[in-house]
Every structure is written in structure tokens, then in C-alpha cells.
Write a structure and sequence with these properties.
- By secondary structure, the protein is of the alpha+beta class.
- It has one domain.
- Helices cover about 30% and strands about 35% of the residues.
- The protein is built from four helices and nine strands; from the N terminus they run αββββββββαααβ.
- The strands form two sheets. Strands 3-2-5-6-9 form a five-stranded mixed sheet.
- β7 and β8 form a beta hairpin.
- It is globular.
């Protein structure tokens, strides 16, 4: 009897974990959520690092995605590889935003491009399919703390933020925008 009970409880927990682990999860009240998605295996071995303002928020490689929840409002999201890509965001509370991480050949390492995705984008269904099919990549807190310490010792983020303010922010081709109206309607996330 106990064995059967443990088996049933195990199945229930496994089922509830798998149903919560993938797909679109709405943000908490007052927040927005951004999904960074790589839908191709090109450059699969190369990791890209992701940042929110001056904070390191995660890293992943390959055909995967990362879910990042943050307060609604204005933010700078960016990624680093051989190049740096920036998104100036004005996010609405309850909004879900998609960002396609495009891969390009680089001289030493793969380069990337952060492309906001709307419902009419040719890659919308590919991004949606990826998010619906697997759980997001989560960077462990220990890795985040270790990486932040290493980056701080090198002055990396400070240098990038200074260059952003001085050079990239005023260059229309260097920074893309995500506006409140770019949130994906809830009925399209099913």
C-alpha cells in the first residue's frame, strides 16, 4: 500500500513539474517578462551572456531560451559575445515580450543580434514552438554571483556602460527598442 502511494505521489509531482516547466508563464503583478530565444543550432557551442542594466542575469548556449521577469517600466537589456547588442525597453505590467537571438559568424567567436519578435514576425511560430516544447535555461545563483564578481574585477560592465552612453546609445543602428505595445497578446501565447 505504501509503495503504491509513493508511486502515485511520484507521478503527480513529475506531471505537475513538467506542466509548469515549459510554456509561457505570466509575470507577477506589476512585472513584465522577456523571453530570449535561440531557435537555431548554428553556433550551438557558443554561450552568450545576458544583462539587465549593470546586472548579469544569465548565460546559455544552443537551441534554448531564457525567461527573465522584471518590474514594468524602462530598462536596458543587453547581451555580450564578440559584439554587444542592446534593447532599450519600456515594458508594461503583465506584458510578455519575445526576443530572438540571431547568430552570425564572427572573427573569433559567434556574433549575435537581438531582434524583438512580434506576432507577424516570420520567426514568431518558431520561438513559440521552442518555448512550448521545453523548459527554460536557468543560470544557477552561484554561477551568477561568481560571474558578477569576475566581471566586476575586470571592470567589464562599467566599461560597456560607459561605451553605451558615449557611443552606442546615440547610434540608431546600435540599439533597438521594445515598447509597451510590443507585448504579445495572451491569446497568441497558447
Amino acid at each position: 500500500m505504501k509503495m503504491r502511494l509513493f508511486f502515485v505521489l511520484g507521478l503527480i509531482s513529475l506531471f505537475s513539474f513538467s506542466t509548469k516547466a515549459q510554456g509561457f508563464t505570466p509575470p507577477a503583478e506589476g512585472n513584465a517578462v522577456v523571453y530570449f530565444a535561440r531557435v537555431t543550432v548554428m553556433g550551438a557551442a557558443v554561450s552568450f551572456e545576458y544583462f539587465h542594466n549593470e546586472k548579469f542575469i544569465g548565460v546559455f548556449k544552443g537551441k534554448n531560451y531564457m525567461r527573465y521577469e522584471l518590474p514594468a517600466g524602462k530598462h536596458l537589456l543587453w547581451a555580450s559575445s564578440e559584439n554587444k547588442e542592446f534593447l532599450e525597453c519600456d515594458l508594461k505590467a503583465g506584458g510578455t515580450y519575445l526576443v530572438l537571438v540571431n547568430i552570425q559568424m564572427g572573427a573569433w567567436k559567434a556574433r549575435m543580434d537581438l531582434e524583438p519578435v512580434l506576432v507577424d514576425n516570420k520567426d514568431f511560430e518558431r520561438v513559440k514552438e521552442l518555448i512550448m516544447s521545453k523548459e527554460p535555461i536557468t543560470t544557477p545563483d552561484k554561477v551568477i554571483a561568481k560571474t558578477e564578481k569576475k566581471l566586476e574585477e575586470k571592470g567589464f560592465v562599467k566599461t560597456i556602460m560607459e561605451r553605451f552612453e558615449k557611443d552606442w546609445k546615440s547610434n540608431p543602428g546600435a540599439t533597438r527598442q521594445i515598447t509597451q505595445d510590443m507585448a504579445i497578446p495572451d491569446d497568441k501565447l497558447k
